[in-house]
């Protein structure tokens, strides 16, 4: 089917009265970003709906991007035609043939803002319905809850027909919820937490700790590639790689084994917080889930959280692992997350971390270290990479390796 435009209905933002303009502007900007390699597409944001004029771009390709943009409740691929009865009949039939499946019920639903048009809505519903019955077998009409609604809108400039109401990603346009940093490991949970933060409209910068030479470049590239998948939901995400080996070595040399993990996490949180402040963010997100591992008991969280008063938000805190995995599969990060590249935390993980660390003890042990000098050196070594949807980092590396052989 050659659709000419997509009609987009806004999500939660329609209820946000005075912020509406900002929301619509952001959404239009985000749609523009994800469709940037379709230069022919025009985006026309209006007060109640957005029209995406395809100008020849294939709907199926645009659809792949659009369904991941937050702030869209539903959308319909639409065909704009001349306002003649014959054109409406022919297009209605073509749409039905493309989208109707045997066993479905349907109805025709006409709206008319051009009141000078020769037929009113009841007449059009009747005439188009009759025409379709004459052309197709096994049609069944259902007024209350039909499986397919053939929508006809007769406006001043043209008639618009659609037969699909597709569900958008929901949520709020990224950027309307403010800025934050996200602590992204290469695991399953933090990419899911990132997705959920983006869904509420928060613009995130990824903060990733890596520890060369203890961790390989592949582990770093895995986190970058996960960011590439998540950028589908954001348009673009900045990835901040923070060198962490010196801090880990120092902690390992000077801190009792039971507190290695707690103190490492306190340093991670401090670094994330400083980066947040520098970049104008208001919160820190992470992928912790209550009780999942030793560092994620409430006692542990409290002992780690002690280093900052900045809100630390944990979108997957109350989810079961199976629920997190289901979401990871849905958003497309799971297969990459389970690739076995070592994370900096696994390498320096003590065999028996304390599950109930004490804040006082953590502070006392930490006083043995030159915290601010360690933090400053790590911050001096950060690298920032802007990452776009589906940017690949692992494949490039594999190709380079192959080329060297
Ligand atoms: N190398 C890292 N860089 C950035 N953040 C990290 C790193 N390692 C852990 N974190 C943060 O700490 C959280 C808890 O990490 P941990 O390794 O204990 O748990 P996890 O359940 O395996 O999480 P994930 O599946 O996200 O790795 C992560 O979700 C992430 O937000």
Summed up, what is this model?
40% of the residues lie in helices and 19% in strands. The protein is of the alpha/beta class and 405 residues long. Bound molecules: adenosine-5'-triphosphate (ATP).
Task: Describe this structure as you would to a colleague.
The strands form two sheets. Strands 1, 2, 3, 4, 5, 6, 7 and 8 form an eight-stranded mixed beta sheet that branches. Helix 3 crosses helix 4 (121-135). Helix 9 links the parallel strand 12 and strand 13 (312-313). The mean pLDDT is 93. The chain is elongated and about 85 Å long. 40% of the residues lie in helices and 19% in strands. The protein has 405 residues and is α/β, with parallel strands linked by helices. The two termini are 48 Å apart. The protein binds adenosine-5'-triphosphate. Adenosine-5'-triphosphate binds at residues 183-185, 187-190, 207-209, 286-288, 292-293, 295-296, 343-345.
Mean pLDDT value: 93
Hetero groups: adenosine-5'-triphosphate
The termini sit apart by 48 Å
Q: Specify Rg, calculated over alpha carbons.
A: 27 Å
Helix content: 40-55%
Question: How many helices?
Answer: 15
Shape: elongated
User: Sheet bearing the most strands, described?
Assistant: 8 strands, mixed
Show unreliable segments. Answer: none
Strand content: 15-25%
Q: What pattern of helices and strands is seen along the backbone?
A: EHEEHEHEHEEEEHEHEHHEHEHHHHHEH
DSSP strand count: 14
* Structural classification: alpha/beta
Task: Furnish the topology, listing elements before pairings.
Elements: E1 5-10, H1 20-34, E2 42-45, E3 49-53, H2 59-66, E4 72-81, H3 85-99, E5 106-112, H4 121-135, E6 148-154, E7 159-162, E8 166-170, E9 179-183, H5 189-199, E10 203-210, H6 217-230, E11 237-243, H7 245-254, H8 260-278, E12 284-285, H9 298-305, E13 312-313, H10 321-331, H11 334-337, H12 344-347, H13 359-366, H14 371-380, E14 383-387, H15 394-404
Parallel strand pairs: 5-6, 9-10, 9-12, 10-11, 12-13
Antiparallel strand pairs: 1-3, 1-4, 2-3, 4-7, 4-8, 6-7, 11-14
Helix pairs in contact: 3-4, 5-10, 7-8, 8-9, 8-14
The structure holds adenosine-5'-triphosphate.
Pathway: Cofactor biosynthesis; thiamine diphosphate biosynthesis
InterPro entries: Rossmann-like_a/b/a_fold, ThiI_AANH, ThiI_fer, ThiI_N, THUMP_dom, THUMP_ThiI, tRNA_STrfase, tRNA_sulfurtransferase_ThiI
Family: Belongs to the ThiI family.
């Amino acid at each position: 089917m050659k659709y000419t435009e997509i009609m987009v209905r806004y999500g939660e933002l329609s209820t946000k009265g005075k912020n509406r303009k900002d929301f619509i502007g952001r959404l239009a900007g985000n749609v523009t970003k994800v469709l940037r390699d379709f230069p022919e597409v025009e985006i026309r944001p209006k007060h109640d709906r957005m029209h995406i004029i395809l100008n020849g771009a294939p709907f199926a390709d645009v659809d792949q991007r659009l369904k991941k943009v937050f702030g869209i409740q539903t959308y319909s691929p639409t065909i704009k035609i001349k306002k003649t009865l014959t054109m409406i009949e022919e297009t209605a039939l073509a749409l039905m043939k493309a989208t109707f499946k045997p066993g479905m019920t349907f109805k025709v639903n006409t709206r008319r803002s051009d009141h000078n048009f020769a037929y009113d809505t009841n007449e059009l519903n009747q005439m188009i319905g009759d025409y379709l019955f004459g052309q197709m077998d096994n049609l069944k009409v259902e007024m209350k809850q039909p499986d397919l609604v053939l929508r006809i809108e007769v406006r001043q400039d043209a008639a618009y027909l659609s037969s699909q109401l597709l569900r958008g990603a929901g949520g709020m346009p990224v950027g309307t919820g403010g800025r934050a940093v996200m602590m992204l490991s290469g695991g399953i949970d933090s990419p899911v937490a990132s997705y959920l933060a983006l869904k509420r409209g928060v613009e995130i910068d990824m903060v990733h700790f890596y520890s060369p030479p203890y961790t390989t470049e592949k582990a770093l590239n895995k986190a970058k590639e996960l960011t590439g998948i998540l950028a589908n939901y954001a348009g673009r995400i900045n990835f901040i790689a923070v060198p962490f080996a010196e801090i880990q070595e120092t902690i390992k040399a000077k801190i009792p084994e039971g507190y290695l993990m707690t103190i490492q996490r306190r340093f991670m949180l401090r670094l994330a917080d400083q980066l947040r402040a520098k970049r104008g963010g208001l919160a820190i997100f992470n992928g912790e889930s209550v009780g999942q591992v030793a560092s994620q008991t409430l006692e542990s969280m409290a002992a780690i959280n002690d280093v900052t008063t900045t809100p630390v938000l944990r979108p997957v805190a109350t989810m079961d692992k199976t629920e997190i995995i289901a979401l990871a599969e849905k958003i497309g990060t799971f297969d990459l997350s389970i690739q076995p590249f070592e994370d900096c935390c696994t390498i320096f993980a003590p065999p028996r971390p304390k599950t109930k660390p004490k804040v006082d003890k953590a502070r006392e042990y930490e006083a043995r270290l030159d915290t601010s000098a360690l933090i400053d050196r790590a911050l001096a070594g950060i690298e920032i990479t802007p990452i776009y949807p589906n940017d690949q980092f692992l494949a490039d590396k594999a190709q380079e390796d192959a080329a060297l052989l």
